[in-house]
Specification:
Layout: H1 22-39, H2 56-94
Amino acid sequence: MTEPPTRTPEEGGRKATATVTVPMIVAGVCLAIPFAAMLWVDSYSRLTPAFIGIPFFYWYQMLWVLISTLLTVVAYTIVRRHERLTRAREAGERS
């Protein structure tokens, strides 16, 4: 099997580099927290305390929908900012 042709920076392609940085780790943690919280069923598998008549099991999960949304927005913002800084740094190196 042959590898697909790679494009050079002059052709509009970007160099694929896999670097682990602190912002990327923070973004990954932001995405992993809701996943881990929902997998730990024993933490919310109960009926009390009820909130406005809604059992804990249900309102806890709905709360995590909001928390997950916020954490995903934070992760997205971190990744986009990191990509912009990386592109600006690469453009500065080429000049």
